[in-house]
Every structure is written in structure tokens, then in C-alpha cells.
Amino acid sequence: MDFDQQIFEGGRKIPLVEEFYTIQGEGYHTGKAAYFIRVGGCDVGCSWCDTKFSWNPSLHPVVPAEQIIEHVLKYPAAAVVVTGGEPLMVNMDYLTGMLKERGIETFLETSGAYPLSGTWDWICLSPKKNAPPLDAIFPEADELKVIISSEEDIAWALENGSKVGNDCKLYLQPEWSRREQILPLIIEFSKQNPCWMISLQSHKYMHIP
Predict the structure, then answer these.
(1) Looking at residue 4, what is its pLDDT?
(2) Strand, coil or helix: what is 137?
(3) What is the dihedral sign for C-alpha 161, 162, 163, 164?
(4) pLDDT tens digits along 54-93
(5) pTM for this entry
(6) CATH number at 5-206
(7) Taking 60 as the threshold, does the pLDDT of residue 129 lie above it?
(8) How many angstroms separate the CA atoms of 122 and 29, rounded?
(9) CA distances from 30 to 26, 73, 80 (A)
(10) Quick one: pLDDT at residue 79?
């Protein structure tokens, strides 16, 4: 993967895969209108990833952060979700600083495999076995969202759930292509362990981005 940090000028420029205004479909903020910024670059390599097109940052334009902010301000919802790819492969201090100056809420979706940067109102940590989260991210997480594609993934969820703070929201989310097979498992698990909630990719049911 070609990931030359110099071209991003310390986060003043972003490898932009796509940006769009939609409804958050997963996790704690499901149903909330937000502007999504998808950052290019990821080396975690999940086989079931539904955004593999974002992995190689060299395939996407490098866009000034100011240009992205201009687009955000055209929409009524004062909330931005930064996702990927793995957005923390790029320094997020500059982008989130400008968003906060304009009173916009900042939500991060990350695997936690890279050091945290940026100023965030909400951090959704979605840990991956291929590249486990750094220890420092766990106390910062507001939400832990673990993708479940097999029964073995429940143990992975429990391992990560033991590391987050007491106020962190805990979610199990069925891997989309196996949702019918895996839902009975996580429904029963959540009934027996009510601190864990279920996240569904409701945007896919609504046929929106």
C-alpha cells in the first residue's frame, strides 16, 4: 500500500474516498442524520469488509480539509462521522479542530489499530483480530461495536469488552452476509448478557448509503 504521509501535510489534506449526507445506520447513533467522511487507507484486511474500495489511499483524491468543511456546512445536521478505511492512519487533529470551531459534533469509527488523533464527541471502537486495538484506545471508547461472523467471535467481543470503561456502550453486530445465520446466536447471547446490545446495519435495510 502506498501511504506517503507527507502528501497529507499533517492532516491538512485527506485521502477522500467519498463524502455524503445520510442517516447513521449502526450502533448508538442509529437514526441520526450526519455527514459522512470516508477516509482512504486501511491495512487491517478484514475478509468480509464492505468498503474494500477504500483500502488503497492512492486510488482516491487528496483533498484539502477546508474543502471538505465547505461541503459539510451545506447541510443542516451539525454532526460528522469520520470513517474509513481506517481514518486514524491520517492525523485527524486539523480536520476535527476546524469542525469543532464551527460547532459540529465529531464522531469517529475506528479499529483502534493506530494512535488516536483528533478531538471527538464520540468514539466507536470496532476491534479487528487481524490488527488488534492499541491499549490506549480502550478507555477513550464511548461505544464498542464488535462484528460477529461466527460463534468464536463472541469470545473476541468479551475480551475487548473487558478492557473498555464502565460507561462504554457494548454492541454485537452480525456480519451482513451471514446475518440470518448469526442473528439467533447474538439474540440469545444478548438476552443472557443484557449489558450487550445488538446493532443492525439499518441503512442497508433502508437502501441508503
Answers:
(1) 64
(2) helix
(3) positive
(4) 888 778 899 999 999 999 999 999 999 999 999 999 999 9
(5) 0.94
(6) 3.20.20.70
(7) yes
(8) 10
(9) 5, 22, 13
(10) 98
Residue-range domain boundaries for the chain: 5-206
Whether 14 shows a pLDDT value over 60: the answer reads: yes
User: What are the cell numbers at 73?
Assistant: 456546512
Q: What is the pLDDT of residue 56?
A: 83
Residue 129 neighbours by CB distance under 10 Å: 13
Kindly compute the dihedral angle of the four CA atoms of residues 59, 90, 25, 67, in this order, to the nearest 10 degrees: -70
Beta-carbon-side half-sphere exposure of residue 150 (alpha carbons within 13 Å): 3
CA distance 59 to 18: 12
* Grid cell in block for residue 137: 484506545
For 83, the enclosing helix (H) or strand (E) is: strand 79-83
Q: What is the spatial distance between Cα 171 and Cα 168, in angstroms, rounded to a whole number? A: 10
Q: Which CA distances in Å does 83 have to 24, 37, 178?
A: 12, 6, 23
